[in-house]
C-alpha cells in the first residue's frame, strides 16, 4: 500500500471554498506543506469546489489570499499550473464521469434505485434488530426485470461502489495499524441521482490521477479510509491508479468544553487572527504544537526549524486543545524576534485609518520610530500598537476613567506638582534622568517609584499600563508632558 521505496513524496491540500478558513484547516495545510518541504517533495494545492450551493468565488479568492499570507507556496495548483491541471474539481467533471462509467462497466459499482424512505425504513429495522445500519446491498444484484420496473416507476438511481467482502487493514502514519471489518464498511454512494459526482469519488480519483503518495488529513475522515482503499484497488485494476497512498489522520483540534473546534467558534476564524495582527510565523508556530513538537522543552521555533525536523510519525494522535492565551504568548515571542525595521513595517496597517484615532497629518514618523523598539517588547499582537502609542499623536490622551480613579488617589495633586517641578529641571535626552526626577518626587511624598509614577503615567498617557514610561516621556517631549500634567492638575482641582 505504501509508495515505492525512493519514490518522490507528493501530498495535497484540498480545501473547499466555503467561507472563512478555519485554523484546523490551516494546521492540516501546515503539516502537509512541512512534510513536502522536509522530503523535498511536491505539494499539490487542489480546490474541491463541486458543491455549487456552498462554494463561491469570493471564498476561493480568500483561500488563495490566506495561503499567500501564511507563506505557503505550492508546486502544483491554481495560478501555478502543473501536469495534472486543472486543479479545481468543478473543471474536472468529465474525468469523474469517465471513471464512474469504468467502475460500472467493470462491476465495481452498480446503480441503486432505493428511495430515501426505503433506506430509512430498512436502517431503522436493522437498528431495532441490533444489526449494522449501513446500506444493506438491496440493489447489488438486481435482475433486468427489477431494473425495468424501477425505471418504469420513474426512479433515478444513484451509483454505489461495491465494497469487497473482506477485512481491510492499513497502517496509519499517525495511529498505527487499523482494521475494519466488512459489516462496518457498507457499499456507499459515489454519484448522485442527477449525475453529480460525490466527494467519495472525486477525492480519491483526483489523488489517483495526481499520483498522491501520502494523504495527511483530519481524524474526522478516518472512517472513509477503508472505503477509499477499496476504491483505489478497483482504480488500479482499471488502470486509473498506480498505487495506494499512505494515510495519516491528524488529531482533532478541541475548543472550550473539550468540544471539537468548529467554524462557529470565534477562535477558529483565520481572519480573526489576521485582523488582530498575529504574525503568520507566530500563528503557524502555535498551530504546529497542536499535535506535534520540535522537542520537549522548546515551544518557540522558526518555520525553517520545523521543516527541518518535521516527520508525520512524530504527530501525537490524541486530541489537541486550542489555547488562545498560549497562542498570543507565542505570537508575542515572534514579534520580539523581528528586527525593528520589519516590526515597524508590519505595524503600519494599525497606524492609519480605520484603526488609528488620530488624523493622518498628526502622525509623527520620527516619534513612531523612536518608540517602536520599546513597543516591540510589549505586544502580543500587532493591533495592540494603536492603543499603546495613541498618546503620542493625539492632542490630549484618551482618559480611561477607571485608570484615572485607580491612579489619582488622595495626595496625587501634590505628587504631580512635585513631579512637574523635578521633570522641568531634568535632562530630557535621558530616560534615566526622567526616572530619577519621578523617583525624587515620590521620595518627597514617602512613595516608592511604582506608586509615584502611576499618576504621572495616567496624566500623560491616559492609562495605568503601557509602554515604558520614561522612554515614552522622552519621545513625547518636555513641553507636551508638562502641559498634560498641568491639565491633570486642573482636573483634580475642579
Automatic annotation (TrEMBL):
Signal peptide: none annotated. Residues 343-489 form the Aminoacyl-tRNA synthetase class I anticodon-binding domain. Its cofactor is Zn(2+). The keyword Protein biosynthesis applies. Its main location: cytoplasm. A motif ('KMSKS' region) lies at residues 260-264. Monomer. This is Glutamate--tRNA ligase.
Amino acid at each position: 500500500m505504501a509508495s515505492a521505496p525512493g519514490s518522490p513524496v507528493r501530498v495535497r491540500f484540498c480545501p473547499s471554498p466555503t467561507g472563512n478558513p478555519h485554523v484546523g484547516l490551516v494546521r492540516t495545510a501546515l503539516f502537509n506543506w512541512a512534510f513536502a518541504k522536509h522530503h523535498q517533495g511536491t505539494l499539490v494545492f487542489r480546490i474541491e469546489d463541486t458543491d455549487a450551493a456552498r462554494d463561491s468565488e469570493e471564498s476561493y479568492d480568500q483561500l488563495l489570499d490566506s495561503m499567500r499570507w501564511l507563506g505557503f507556496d505550492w508546486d502544483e495548483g491554481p495560478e501555478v499550473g502543473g501536469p495534472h491541471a486543472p486543479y479545481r474539481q468543478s473543471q474536472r467533471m468529465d474525468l469523474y464521469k469517465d471513471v464512474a462509467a469504468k467502475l460500472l462497466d467493470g462491476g465495481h459499482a452498480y446503480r441503486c434505485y432505493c428511495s430515501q424512505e426505503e433506506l430509512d425504513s430498512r436502517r431503522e429495522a436493522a437498528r431495532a434488530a441490533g444489526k449494522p445500519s449501513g446500506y444493506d446491498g438491496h440493489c447489488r444484484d438486481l435482475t433486468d426485470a427489477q431494473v425495468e420496473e424501477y425505471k418504469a416507476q420513474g426512479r433515478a438511481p444513484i451509483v454505489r461502489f461495491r465494497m469487497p467482502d473482506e477485512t481491510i487493514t492499513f497502517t496509519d502514519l499517525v495511529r498505527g495499524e487499523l482494521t475494519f471489518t466488512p459489516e462496518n464498511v457498507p457499499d456507499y454512494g459515489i454519484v448522485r441521482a442527477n449525475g453529480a459526482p460525490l466527494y467519495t469519488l472525486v477525492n480519491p480519483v483526483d489523488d489517483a490521477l495526481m499520483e498522491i503518495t501520502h494523504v495527511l488529513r483530519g481524524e474526522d475522515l478516518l472512517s472513509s479510509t477503508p472505503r477509499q482503499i477499496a476504491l483505489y484497488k478497483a482504480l488500479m485494476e482499471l488502470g486509473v491508479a498506480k498505487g495506494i497512498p499512505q494515510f495519516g489522520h491528524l488529531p482533532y483540534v478541541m475548543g472550550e468544553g473539550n468540544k471539537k473546534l468548529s467554524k462557529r467558534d470565534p477562535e477558529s476564524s483565520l481572519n480573526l487572527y489576521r485582523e488582530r495582527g498575529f504574525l503568520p510565523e507566530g500563528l503557524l508556530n502555535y498551530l504546529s504544537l497542536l499535535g506535534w513538537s520540535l522537542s520537549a522543552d522548546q515551544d518557540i521555533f522558526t518555520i525553517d526549524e520545523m521543516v527541518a525536523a518535521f516527520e508525520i510519525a512524530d504527530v501525537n494522535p490524541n486530541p489537541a486543545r486550542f489555547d488562545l492565551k498560549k497562542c498570543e504568548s507565542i505570537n508575542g515571542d515572534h514579534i520580539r524576534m523581528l528586527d525593528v525595521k520589519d516590526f515597524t513595517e508590519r505595524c503600519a496597517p494599525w497606524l492609519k485609518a480605520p484603526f488609528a484615532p488620530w488624523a493622518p497629518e498628526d502622525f509623527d514618523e520620527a516619534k513612531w520610530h523612536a518608540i517602536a523598539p520599546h513597543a516591540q517588547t510589549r505586544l502580543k499582537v500587532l493591533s495592540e500598537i494603536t492603543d499603546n502609542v495613541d498618546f503620542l499623536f493625539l492632542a490630549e490622551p484618551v482618559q480611561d476613567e477607571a485608570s484615572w480613579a485607580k491612579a489619582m488617589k488622595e495626595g496625587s495633586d501634590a505628587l504631580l506638582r512635585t513631579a512637574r517641578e523635578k521633570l522641568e529641571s531634568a535632562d530630557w535626552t535621558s530616560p534615566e534622568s526622567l526616572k530619577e526626577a519621578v523617583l525624587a518626587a515620590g521620595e518627597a511624598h514617602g512613595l516608592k517609584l511604582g506608586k509615584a509614577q502611576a499618576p504621572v503615567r495616567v496624566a500623560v498617557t491616559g492609562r495605568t499600563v503601557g509602554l515604558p514610561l520614561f522612554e515614552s516621556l522622552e519621545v513625547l517631549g518636555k513641553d507636551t508632558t508638562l502641559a498634560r500634567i498641568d491639565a491633570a492638575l486642573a482636573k483634580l482641582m475642579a
